[in-house]
Structures are given as structure tokens and as C-alpha cells.
Amino acid sequence: MIRRFLTSQLFVSTRFVSQYYSKKKILVPSRLGVTPGNQHLQVNLFDDENKQSLGRMSLNEAQKLAKFRELILVLFDESHDPPDVRLMTGKNLAHIRDETRANKKRELSNEKIADFALRLRPHIADKDLLTKLANAKAAYAKGCSIRFSLDFGHSIDEKETEKLAARADDQKAFLARLKPHLEEFPKVHTNSKSVRSIILIVPSKLLAEKSTKKTDKSADVQQGEAAEEESKSIDIEDKNINISRNIRRKSV
């Protein structure tokens, strides 16, 4: 009986450690249940209502304080050791859970950039072309990267020079037709080009925004370094002038 009791208590305690001390950030703050197997474990308690830290204590003590204040014991961040636990009202807990989910979805949507594929043929009607281009622009506005696949038909043998020349003219004419519409995108580059098809890629605007942020940061760093170098050179020049003046005075 004693061995069975100790085994069950060890299992409960280990389960708590693996669940709340896994060093992984939880998706959303959640209500923390206190059991005989985990009540002795230490946590950092924060009073969300009064915005103050209550220090480090056992879960059992934190639960007593929560009952006395008629608040909920919430596991807020388990990546710390000991984990962060808060005293919160049910209304605040619901609000912060919704806010955390919304931020997480926003982060995931920014990380995963979808591709919008568009297949076009040179003899497409103007109305259909405008419809497809409108769909592409709408997808680009949402952060998608656009892939234009211009299909010109079957392959042509190298010996058939006249057909190859005609195909090249068709490609030039179709690209000239698309040019006014493609100029509405900030950047378009050719991914591949052959007798049968031409692949054009429009990078996602999210990538463009990230690259501009990086360039702005690097420019600020370079400006700061240049200013430091300039100030150092001015200091050196001032020192040299003072030294030369002292030498002249001594010689006089």
C-alpha cells in the first residue's frame, strides 16, 4: 500500500512538472488547478488587479490567497523558473486569452506567406484578363506572393526556326500587353523563360516591408558609426593642434 501511494504521488508530481515546467510558452493563459501532487511547488505570484508582485510562494499559499480575494489562479507564463502565476478576475482572464489568441494568429499569418498562382494564355480575352489580374491584386494586398505562368503551348524543335521566331514574337507581344498591369506591382522578376512558358514572380509585400525595416536599421547604424568616427577625428585634430601650440611656446 505504501509503495502504491508513493508511486501515485510521484506520478502526479512528475505530471505537474512536465506540464508546467516544460520551458515552453503556453498558447494562452489558463486557470491553474492545485492538487495534492503539485501544491508544494513554487511559483512567482503577481496581483493583476493591483499591478504588483507578491513574490515567490508555494501553490498552496497562492491558492489560499486567491480564495480569500475571490480571484482566479492563472498560469500566465511557464517558461520561467518558477513559472509566473497571476491572481485575476474571470473577465480579465477572458479578455487576455482573446487578445493572446489574436496576436498568435497574426504572427502565424505573417510567418506563412501563401502563393497565388495565375495561369495566362496569350489569346485570353480582355475581360477575363482583367478579372484574373484583379484577383491577383487582391491576393497581393493580403500579403500573398504572385506567380504568373504564361503558357504559350507546345514545345518547338530547334530546327524550326520560323516557328521559333513566331513564338518569340508572340511572347514579346503578350509581355507588352501585360506590362501596364504588371507595373502596378512594386517588383516583378522573371523566374524562368523557355519556348513553352514564362514564369513571373511578384514577391509578397510582407517581405518587402521586412527588408525595408532591415535596411533602415542598417542605415541608422552606419550613420551612428560615421558620426562616432567623425567625432574621434575631430578630437584627434584638436589634440594635435594643442600639442603643436605647446611645442611653439616652449621653443619661444
Automatic annotation (TrEMBL):
GO terms for cellular component: mitochondrion. GO terms for biological process: mitochondrial translational initiation; ribosome disassembly. The keyword Protein biosynthesis applies. The keyword Protein biosynthesis applies. Residues 42-92 form the Translation initiation factor 3 N-terminal domain. InterPro entries: T_IF-3_C_sf (IPR036788), T_IF-3_N_sf (IPR036787), Translation_initiation_fac_3 (IPR001288), Translation_initiation_fac_3_N (IPR019814). Keywords: Initiation factor, Protein biosynthesis. One of its GO terms (molecular function) is translation initiation factor activity. Pfam families: IF3_N. Belongs to the IF-3 family. This is Translation initiation factor 3 N-terminal domain-containing protein. It comes from Rotaria magnacalcarata.
